Amino acid sequence: MAEAVHQAFDPLSTGSRAKQIRSKTIVYGLLTFFALLYMSPLFIIFINAYRPLEEIVREGFISAPNTMSWSYWGEAWSTFCIGGNCEGVSRYFVNTLLMTVPATVLSTAFGLVNGYALSKWRFKYDAWVFGLITLGVFLPAQMTLLPWAFVLGKLGVSNTIGGLVLVHTIQGISFTTLFCRNYFVAVPDDLIKAARIDGAGFWRIFWRIMLPLSPPILIVCVIWQFTGIWNEFLYGTVFTSGSNQPITSAIVAFSGSGTGERHYNVEAASVIFAALPPLLVYVFGGKYFVRGLTSGAVK
Amino acid sequence: MSSLQIKNLRKSFGSVEVLKDINLEADSGEFVALVGPSGCGKSTLLSIIAGLESVSSGEVIIEDKVVNNEAPKDRDIAMVFQSYALYPTMTVRQNMTFGMECRNIDKATQDKTVERVANLLQIEPLLQRKPGQLSGGQRQRVAMGRALVRDPKLFLFDEPLSNLDAKLRVEMRSEIKKLHQRVGRTTVYVTHDQIEAMTLATRIAVMHQGVLQQYDTPKAIYETPANVFVAGFMGSPNMNFFAAKVVSTDGGFGLVLDGGDGTVLPLINGAHGALSDGQAVTFGARPEHFSPASEGRADRKGRASVIVPVTVEMDEPTGSETILMGEIAGQSAIIVCEPDEAPAPGVTMDFEVDMSKVSLFDPVSEKRL
């Protein structure tokens, strides 16, 4: 088959020459303005992670750096005192990692199986089951605090990372089930029928046919869950304390322990440590979003 | 020996009955075409045979074994889908071996079978490709290959050619026929295309609104349709239906077309059921059973023919033949004739009707008389 040459339609290239130039200037100007606006906080924090403290105090937060030093990154990572614990953010970074990775993997795995069962193995009242599961998507987190506190206490996992993994896994299944079910609905039923006639059962169809079709939605689930759980703050603050906190809750102690002087440069480096993993996941995972793998399934 | 039997089969979705008391039987090696318009229940019937749908009542019997409660994999069938349903992430070879893999057939046998079938369908060069890299015709072949590796008791085809363009469809149609002659397995083939049914099948089951209208050989279905629906559905262009009355003549009975000049068209004795004087009937004559009177073709063949004047309103030349739309006795008619003999639009010309080929139907029950 010859590949068709596909040219995207460019509405800005229509009309007179003067109009084309005018409209392109407006579009690019606006886009550049908003891009700079959104990038500026990251840029300012980044610069301040290199500036000495007295310079920041003297010249203010938003200013060009005179002298720069790498030392604040090391201090933020391993020796800075947060809430009386002088190990830097590394401890909390590891806490968050131990919470986010298992919760992401588990919630995505359950979401895939749920979505597959709900879209391809219809049963009586399946719409109700799907509706109840996805109700969690619309339930405010504050409403679930008390029930979760009760459950975590009963299970004896209060103030542990394991407890947070449980909370995030269960809360996350609502989202991953919704995503996966809606993705799998688009997979032609004929594939399942053909596999049934070929003699495959529930799990073989899942492993050999559905899962190989899933990378696009898998990436969506992983990015959504990883960034969501990593950045989550409420559960971490409510259900853990001290050295068991995830990084988002721990860096709040910057403003909480207001006795000593503020180390803006170290704090800036800490904030970047906290923000870096979701950012990297997004940058490297984003390109897989657009891949359509079902081409050739039908027709 | 019959390899497929369907007895008193009924299927309802909620309160809607989509299959009403279907009885069918296919002999070993037979090619049965299920044909009918969209929504007639033919695809549901195929799904029921495959075990992808349950029955509401009745029996499905494959080689003397009732399979109503058997899973699709235990029925020993293979199916080719309209969408081909090739597994998109597997290569052509993996698509073909998946069924054998599920049945724990050893690797050496799998390889040998794939080789044999790939050779039969001439798809060896495609074995390492993914379905997305294949053209429509190649996907069609692979879908058949996936069915053939199984060597099942029953082949099921669900409109397998409807996604192909016209030229390829005709090619694949004759390939399917060749393949069936070579493999010799019982086949059930669903289609809405009456030409596919006519060309491929040894027997055709015409369905309409969940009811089996007629089940017979292509020749019998075409020449002696059981009712007005079958007569109109099979054949292209459609059979002409004229409102007429039966009159007694010296030798037997004749017809007078409603709205005509009262000319009596004598019927052949014994070709139709019991008739009575003055009875209203629907007179059915296929477009190709008309021919220009000046050629005297029917007379030469020794057939009984009657001359009727036809007013031609429009012509549609197809190249090999010309389709004429016109009026006979004020009732609209479609006639097929040779391009050289076709009159110009607006002309009234005499045509012979071959009375040995015509059908009579009851206008109320629409059943054949």
TrEMBL record, chain A:
Residue intervals passing through the bilayer: 26-50, 92-113, 125-149, 161-184, 205-226, 268-290
Keyword entries, A-Z: Membrane, Transmembrane, Transmembrane helix, Transport
Cited PROSITE patterns: ABC_TM1
Pfam name, any one: BPD_transp_1
Domain ABC transmembrane type-1 span(s) in chain numbering: 93-285
Gene3D superfamilies in the cross-refs: MetI-like (1.10.3720.10)
Keyword Transmembrane helix: yes
Biological processes annotated in GO: transmembrane transport
GO cellular component terms listed in the entry, alphabetical order: plasma membrane
UniProt KW Hydrolase keyword: no
InterPro entries: MetI-like (IPR000515), MetI-like_sf (IPR035906)
Main location: membrane
Cell location: Cell membrane
UniProt topology in membrane: Multi-pass membrane protein
Membership in a protein family: Belongs to the binding-protein-dependent transport system permease family.
Protein name (database record): Carbohydrate ABC transporter membrane protein 2 (CUT1 family)
Species assigned in the record: Litoreibacter meonggei
From TrEMBL, chain B:
GO MF, one annotated term: ATP hydrolysis activity
Keyword Nucleotide-binding tagged: yes
Record InterPro entries: AAA+_ATPase, ABC_transporter-like_ATP-bd, ABC_transporter-like_CS, ABC_transpr_MalK-like, ABC_transpr_MalK/UgpC-like, Mo/tungstate-bd_C_term_dom, NA-bd_OB-fold, OB_MalK-like
Chain ranges passing through the membrane: none
SMART domains, A to Z: AAA
Coiled coil, from the record: none
GO CC field: ATP-binding cassette (ABC) transporter complex, substrate-binding subunit-containing
Entry-linked CDD domains: ABC_MalK_N
Limits of the ABC transporter domain: 4-234
PROSITE patterns assigned: ABC_TRANSPORTER_1 (PS00211), ABC_TRANSPORTER_2 (PS50893)
Highest taxon, organism lineage: Bacteria
Keywords: ATP-binding, Nucleotide-binding, Transport
Secretion signal, residue range per the UniProt entry: none
GO annotation, biological process: carbohydrate transport
The family this protein is said to belong to: Belongs to the ABC transporter superfamily.
Name listed for the protein in its UniProt record: Carbohydrate ABC transporter ATP-binding protein (CUT1 family)
Lineage: Bacteria, Pseudomonadati, Pseudomonadota, Alphaproteobacteria, Rhodobacterales
